[in-house]
Amino acid sequence: MEQYDVIIIGAGTAGLSAAIYAARSGKRTLVLEGKSCGGQIINAKAVVNYPGIKQISGVDFAMGLYEQAVEAGAKVLFQKAVRMELADQKKIVATAKQNYACSAVILAMGAKNRPLGLEREAELTGSGVSYCATCDGAFYKGKKTAVVGGGNTALEDALVLSEYCQKVTLIHRRDSFRGEWQTVQELKERSNVEILTDTVVTALEGDRQLTGIRVRNLKQEKEWVLPVHGLFAAVGQIPQSDLVRDLVELDDYGYIKADESCRTSLPGIFAAGDCRTKEIRQLATAAADGVTAALAACQLA
Amino acid sequence: MEIKVITKETFETEVLQTKEPVLVDFFAEWCGPCKMLAPILHEIAEEKNDLKICKLDIDQDVDLALEYGVQAVPTMILFRQGEAAQKIVGLCSKDELLQQLNL
User: Fold this and answer.
1) What is the mean pLDDT of the segment spanning B21-41?
2) pLDDT at position A135 over 80
3) Per-residue model confidence (pLDDT) at position B2
4) Mutate to test the interface with A, among B25, B27, B34, B35 (most CBs of A within 10 A)
5) Which residues neighbour A15 within 8 Å (Cβ) at sequence distance 6 or greater?
6) In chain B, what are the domain boundaries?
7) What are the chain B neighbours of A40 within 8 Å (beta carbons)?
8) Among all residues of chain B, which has the CA nearest to that of A33?
9) What is the C-alpha separation between A20 and B88, in angstroms, rounded?
10) In angstroms, rounded to a whole number, what is the distance separating the alpha carbons of residues A91 and A79?
11) Active site residue A165
12) Neighboring chain A residues of B91 at a CB cutoff of 8 Å
């Protein structure tokens, strides 16, 4: 079996940041990735909020991370980790192809944005459809946008967007919001915010760029088209934690429980980035997690 | 095997007249998904000794790309005995790629 000091599962921002630090610490480092490297950031046309980098495309950022990790000495393999088990002091990570052993594992599988389930949603993602108002909101300055969801993320997204968008329509399928009452009141006071409850989005309009959404009021059985340039889906995320479901503690939503040092409930197993329990999920915090987890892992490996 | 950069001048000899299967990656310098695909193709090239992988910049040889119906990048076409046998459009994982190409 191939032996490593640190195995990192997932080559997104957290995973590759961890790889840079682990490899630079002289550890034999393996990164396993089932898709392509970069994680969610590759969908961002422009990253403008990463401290120290004024502007970069998501793809260039991801490729920079990848090259930096490989040049530091990390091995990146495009194999999906399908199983993980503990054997004595070692951890075994299995892919469809082979098994790898290591002293410390960093879980960096990320999270997926829960899609709205609309036709052409994937195609228009990045061309009007977004899952992150903090990331993409500024591209819609002075334009009409809509936010879908009923939790705090949706409410806060609407609030942020209303600062600079011409108009923001908040759409929620129920008649009341799960998110904080105070934020709802704040939204109601804003003249450029419209709130549509009992309403769902049924279709996306626009050829190559979103131009509008079809919405339907469930109580009045009424359907109409809302002209918007940006649609922000805030209906939750799905943490990619299936691999370790029976191994480490997860919270009620499936996020891996980890402390500020990224330690999980099992010694030698760390969680970094979007797949762990935490408040803020941004590019910079994913990178920070990767660094923290790697340095903690290096003490063991 | 190393990935070869080809042009319409070398296409005939490098692809059509090659006995072994050749996977041609039609890419563009400005294409993000193409960049993401590159390390995956690199890994396949290292592993598969019976497969030749080439890349062709569609902006340099747009006519050739159109001749093979390439309208989006990345597009990968697997040539067997000089014939386009399989075509894959868009970024996909290594497993998906190998599966679709029956490799």
Assistant:
1) 93
2) no
3) 87
4) B35
5) A8, A9, A31, A33, A39, A106, A108, A272, A273, A290
6) 4-98
7) none
8) B93
9) 32
10) 17
11) no
12) 36
Which of B56, B51, B63, B61 shows the shortest CA–CA distance to B23? B51
Q: Which helix (H) or strand (E) holds A87?
A: strand A81-87
Write the CA distances from A229 to A47, A113, A141, A199, A203, integer angstroms.
19, 20, 10, 19, 14
Are A42 and A15 a contacting pair, CB within 8 Å?
no
Model confidence pLDDT, tens digit, residues A161-198:
999 999 999 999 999 999 889 999 999 999 999 999 99
Q: What's the rounded Cα separation, in Å, for the pair B32 and B34?
A: 5
Of A36, A60, A80, the CB nearest to B40: A36
Q: Which positions in chain A have a beta carbon within 8 angstroms of at least one beta carbon in chain B?
A: 34-38, 42, 57-60, 62-63, 66, 76-80, 96
Q: What is the mean pLDDT of chain A?
A: 95
Find the closest chain A residue to B94 by CA distance.
A78
pLDDT at A261: 94
H or E stretch including A23? helix A13-24
The label of the residue with tokens 């993602």 reads: A125
> Which chain A residues are closer than 8 Å to B32 by Cβ?
42, 57-59
A80/B95 CB distance under 8 A: yes
Domain boundaries B4-98, corresponding CATH code: 3.40.30.10
Give the three-state DSSP class for A293.
Answer: helix
DSSP state, residue A255: P
Residue-wise DSSP of B15-47: IIT-SS-EEEEEE-TT-HHHHHHHHHHHHHHHH
Tokens of residue B33, six digits = 């998904």
Contact B33 A59 (CB under 8 A): yes
Instruction: Please give the pLDDT value at position A269.
Output: 97
The yes-or-no answer on residue A37 being catalytic is no
Angle between helices A283-300 and A13-24 (to 10 degrees): 40
The span from the CA of A120 to the CA of A233, in Å, is 14
- Is the pTM higher than 0.90? The answer reads no
- Residue whose C-alpha is closest to residue A121's, from A43, A65, A227: A43
Q: Are strands A269-271 and A104-107 parallel, antiparallel or unpaired?
A: parallel
Contacts of B76 in chain A (CB under 8 A): none
